[in-house]
Amino acid sequence: MLPEVLTVRLLVLSVVVLLAFVLLLPTVRGAVQQRAEIDRLQAELAAHESERAELEDELGRWDDRSYVVEQARTRLNYVMPGDTVWRVVDADEVADGGTPAEGDAPTEPARPAGPAGAPWYQAMWESVQVTDARATTVDGDEDDGTDVEPGGADGGE
């Protein structure tokens, strides 16, 4: 008789443990997921707080006049009155020795196009024509667009 009582008690105990496991598993899983979410949000909050601190430091630097002057010089290429400005226009054309690269001929400076009393739009149009003339002489062939049919590729149909 002892084995039957032990078996019934074991069966009841296993049902109670299984029921507790079934009831507690979703709760424990939810708690673990919420803890992971809290950890992720705390890490995100710490990242945002460090970014905020960096931005506040940068904002504080803008109160310093020397920082503003330095930023104006580097970002906007501003200079103070009396400064001598040196600017390399095309550094790729200069060889390592500091002399112009071989095959480079000095070009003549651009001169204003048109007469001195001409309207601005006429001077601009003449400068476009001069530039276009220089470009076609460099390319070697002049493409005036006369080989294109007026109807397009399909003959206008």
From TrEMBL:
It holds the Pfam family DivIC. It comes from the Bacteria. Keywords: Cell cycle, Cell division, Coiled coil. InterPro entries: FtsL/DivIC. Residues 94-119, 132-157 are annotated as: Disordered. Residues 31-65 form a coiled coil. GO terms for biological process: cell division. Residues 106-119 have a biased composition (Low complexity). This is Cell division protein FtsB. It comes from Isoptericola halotolerans.
